[in-house]
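Bumping my old thread because nobody answered last time. Still need a sequence for this structure:
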């Protein structure tokens, strides 16, 4: 019998949807996993609860105020060192005492610590797709240079990964792969008319029919920007091009994606829409462990449906594909403008149907330059956010 190594894990974004799902899998396997560090933005109460249960060596909050509040609550737990700020985030992500880092901070804020984990050669469980979308080639170059093991956690990319020979995930041609079939749920507004889309609320956008997720990705699913970001993510992870990837709406969210081969075979990974499956796959890979997910009852589900995405009603998918084709800093600008537009929509300051036009205008107003350094990417991110905010103010609802 092979005995598995005990993994020491750092979770960036521990209080979020992916973070809590990761801890739920970890909780089931105390013999396999220990928690080295947990990080969160400002949710002190939730972090305190997690620290009491998982006893990490470090707990990192985004700012000093939150860290002070957490230290007070944790005064009975001197083994936990509470830190704050971006530098501390990078420090725990690269700490030699952890071998596995779950990258589950949402948005561009996740790029620096995820990169720190990559540069330190960790097993990086990549949920934070925005980091890869922003910095694509530089990110993958850093992976190659350090020998980090990046395992996809996004359910579609984890499915594709499971359907490929593990030694050929970046050599799809060599593996005889002819197409990647990326599935999409279609989101909560799949059947809404263009007119109905103008009146949807943040609460409706966040009520995803199949998945329970953080607010930002829920809105991205509703606009189909999530699929656009995933198209770019797949191109970088699997070293392929958008021409090789077809997006199909599959409202049941049971087939998480498929890979087509030259001999006519199509391999699919199926499962209930529960992120603990891809998370457990990444945590234990190449072994399989109990994820706490109920067995899939295919025969009760009975049928699968498919349709093509409607790019007229959901232009974000097209905008993402175009930004990838443009290359350079365009995907970073797309991502920054989307983050600003989604935040404004969630705050009631922008209509849902205005999200794509804010992104399109920001892309049009920003010069694309080669993405030759992370500094260039961060500078473009800042520039694009300022432009997007201006546009948002102009059309305040
Ligand atoms: P979430 O909003 O539920 O959680 C985000 C976490 O990041 C929280 O712990 C929060 O405290 C932390 N955080 C937010 N801003 C921060 C900042 N500026 N500095 C430090 N920490 C910060 O988000 P989520 O749904 O768990 O998604 C996390 C990532 O995983 C996203 O990139 C998302 O696209 C990706 N993802 C999520 C799902 C899902 O089912 N939720 C599926 C696939 C991919
Ligand atoms: Mg996904």
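Sorry it took so long. Here it is:
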């Amino acid at each position: 019998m092979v005995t598995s190594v005990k993994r020491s894990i750092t979770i960036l974004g521990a209080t979020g949807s992916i973070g809590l799902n990761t801890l739920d899998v970890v909780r089931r396997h105390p013999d396999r996993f220990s928690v080295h560090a947990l990080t969160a933005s400002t949710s002190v109460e939730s972090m305190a609860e997690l620290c009491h249960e998982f006893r990490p060596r470090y707990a990192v909050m985004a700012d000093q105020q939150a860290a002070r509040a957490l230290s007070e609550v944790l005064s009975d737990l001197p083994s936990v060192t509470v830190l704050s700020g971006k530098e501390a985030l990078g420090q725990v992500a690269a700490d030699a005492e952890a071998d596995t880092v779950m990258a589950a901070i949402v948005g561009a804020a996740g790029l620096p610590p995820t990169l720190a984990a990559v540069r330190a050669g960790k097993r990086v469980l990549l949920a934070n797709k925005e980091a890869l979308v922003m910095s694509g080639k530089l990110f993958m170059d850093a992976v190659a240079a350090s020998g980090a093991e990046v395992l996809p956690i996004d359910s579609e990319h984890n499915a594709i990964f499971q359907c490929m020979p593990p030694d050929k995930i970046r050599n799809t041609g060599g593996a005889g792969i002819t197409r990647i079939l990326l599935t999409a749920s279609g989101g909560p507004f799949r059947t809404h008319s263009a007119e109905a889309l103008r009146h949807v609320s943040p609460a409706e956008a966040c009520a995803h029919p199949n998945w329970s997720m953080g607010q930002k990705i829920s809105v991205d699913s509703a606009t189909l920007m999530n699929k656009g970001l995933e198209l770019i993510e797949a191109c970088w992870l699997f070293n392929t091009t958008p021409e090789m990837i077809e997006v199909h709406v599959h409202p049941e969210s049971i087939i998480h994606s498929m890979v087509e081969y030259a001999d006519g075979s199509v391999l699919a990974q199926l499962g209930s829409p529960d992120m603990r499956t891809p998370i457990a796959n990444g945590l234990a890979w190449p072994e399989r462990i109990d994820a706490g997910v109920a067995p899939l009852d295919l025969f009760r589900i009975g049928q699968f449906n498919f349709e093509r995405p409607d790019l007229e009603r959901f232009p974000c998918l097209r905008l993402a594909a175009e930004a990838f084709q443009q290359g350079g800093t365009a995907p970073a600008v797309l991502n920054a403008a989307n983050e600003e537009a989604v935040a404004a929509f969630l705050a009631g300051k922008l209509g849902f149907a205005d999200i794509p036009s804010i992104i399109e205008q920001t892309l049009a107003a920003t010069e694309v330059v080669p993405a030759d350094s992370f500094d260039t990417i961060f500078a473009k991110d800042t520039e694009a956010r300022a432009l997007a905010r201006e546009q948002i103010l102009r059309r305040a609802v």
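The two ends are 63 Å apart (CA to CA). Let me know if any region looks off to you.
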